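If you are new to this repository, start here. Below is one unmodified record pulled from the training split, so you can see the exact layout before writing a loader.
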Amino acid sequence: MNRMIVIVIGSIIVGAAFNLFLIPHQILSGGLSGIAILLGIITPLNTGLLNFLLNLPLLIIGFYKLGRQFIIYTILSVIVLSISLYFIPVTPLSSEPILSSLFGGVISGIGIGLVFRASGSTGGFDIIAMLIAKKRDFPLGTLFSALNGIVVIISGFVFNWDAALNTLLGIYASGKVIDAIHTKHIKLTLMIVTKKGEELKEKLLANLYRGITMMDGEGAYTGEKRKILMTVITRYQLSEVKAIINEVDPNSFVNITETTEVMGFFHRN
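And here is the target side for that same chain:
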């Protein structure tokens, strides 16, 4: 339920960013939402309705490739975003296109990042980015930006190249914010020194789909025997691992470092 609330809030934030900053200045967002904005500007059809219809095929593909829960959350996001685009009035909060593209990109990035963190998606190219990220360890925001070059080109030909450059600025800002919020691609190495090595190992293996290396250790000052557990996790799993460690051995010593690269087998989901 908490995730659904986050998805609803994030989707409304995206809708507000579109209607208050981007659409009034003919600035497109990334992905299918950008195409929906484009069609909404040049046709009498509502952007919210277009956004929903354009997302239907990818929602069906995502259902089979990305799992039922993810698609349920994504459907919720698409519906809330489409409703937001329908009911939030298209009113410019700024008369300056560059500021609007920048703030629109940042605010929409916050909304999309929140939806991603809640294990959902706003649909469109987000689903394609998630499919690629599932196979290869790339930051989602970078993928999201790379997939949107076609939207920038379309914007330039349909409107003008100033609008295209503003669209590019908005997409870039959005991608950076998404990467700052959605940190699943970040890997962490944990080195845990504990008296309760076996108990902690069993608890971690039961609750965490990660390999663990266990080594013998000895306190240099006390001479007491310890177990050293080493594992690599995603940033998302850190709070869960901390809770397990505190439950089993709150007196353990834990060193957490950010990992630049992982070679060999590593389950990325």
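Two things worth knowing about this chain: The CA atoms of residues 195 and 222 lie 13 Å apart. Residues 2-181 form one domain.
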